[in-house]
Amino acid sequence: PMLNQQLPALGPYEFTGTLADTKTGYRLTNMDGRIGGSDIQGSLTLVVGGPRWRLDGDLSSETVTLPISNQPAASPPPDETRIIPDVAVPTSGLREFEMDLGWQMDRFVAGTTDLGKIAFKAHLENGRLQVAPFRASLFGGIMEGSLSLDASEQVPTVALKTTIRHLDLGQLLKGLKAAEGIEGPADITLDLEGRGKTLQELLRRVNGQAEFIGGPGNVKGRYLDLLASELVPALLSEAWKPQLSTQVNCLIARFGLTEGLGRSDGILIDTTRVTVAGIGTVDLAGEYIDMVLTPR
């Protein structure tokens, strides 16, 4: 109510600390509290009056849990054939107050996904949110970078610059409920910007660069070997034997994205048996990948 915002139902809460008046508002120090399954320690300062109230703070937590609703942004039922959910870009309230906040979490759980450690500094002014720097665990890897969300206009703009090191592809695909059978680490670098009111609309308009470097790892079955050879001779060869997986030494792909369509003429896959070069496109709006692979 103080910030003119309705908070989500996070469960019972309790707080202890020292609350004092200031010339411009209130200061809460020595804070130690719990909200549902989350704990919060630190200090907060609230500046009242003026066109927007301001919240400043330095917080730490052992565990933070955030319930996430899977409700679609629009009234039609969600399309279960899509991987990317049509959720709204969160802009509610960003024009109502200002903020400078630092927060370190030893464990952050969003919905059913445990994201591990997260640390960030966030600055919000005139509807523009800047989260920089941030550092988070993500599917076995470490994600570092910056994120900005400009909600000062009717259609928000989102910009992401990040590097993810040692991402576990098996964990990622399982978390996305996508294709299984791929195992191994990967490094991903993203420099993206897009506009949209929902995640799907945002990805349809995204522009920038993306780089993927993976391996060593394994792909279930011999799909890569068969794709990179003449299929019939390979199946008739006495040397061909069913194998549980194909060992991948490395996989490199760099994409330039324009209006949600990524193109690459520099795809390289190296397995223990063959090296494959390729070109391809990734359509984030249609959620499909189209590639041409040629053995070397």
Describe this structure in words.
By secondary structure, the chain is mainly beta. Helix content is 8%, strand content 55%. It has a 17-stranded mixed sheet that branches. A 3-stranded mixed sheet has the order 5-7-8, with no helix packed on it.
List keywords for this structure.
mainly beta, 8% helix, 296 residues, 3-stranded mixed sheet, 17-stranded mixed sheet, 55% strand
Question: How do the helices and strands line up, and which of them pair or pack?
Answer:
Elements: E1 13-21, E2 25-35, E3 38-47, E4 53-61, E5 64-66, E6 97-105, E7 108-110, E8 113-114, E9 118-125, E10 128-138, E11 141-150, E12 157-168, H1 169-175, E13 182-183, E14 185-195, H2 199-204, E15 207-214, E16 217-220, H3 223-227, H4 231-236, E17 245-258, E18 261-271, E19 275-283, E20 288-295
As a whole number of angstroms, the C-alpha radius of gyration is 23 Å
Structural shape: elongated
| Major sheet attributes | 17 strands, mixed
Tally of individual helices = 4
User: How many β-strands, per DSSP?
Assistant: 20
Mean pLDDT: 84
Low-confidence parts: 70-76, 230-238
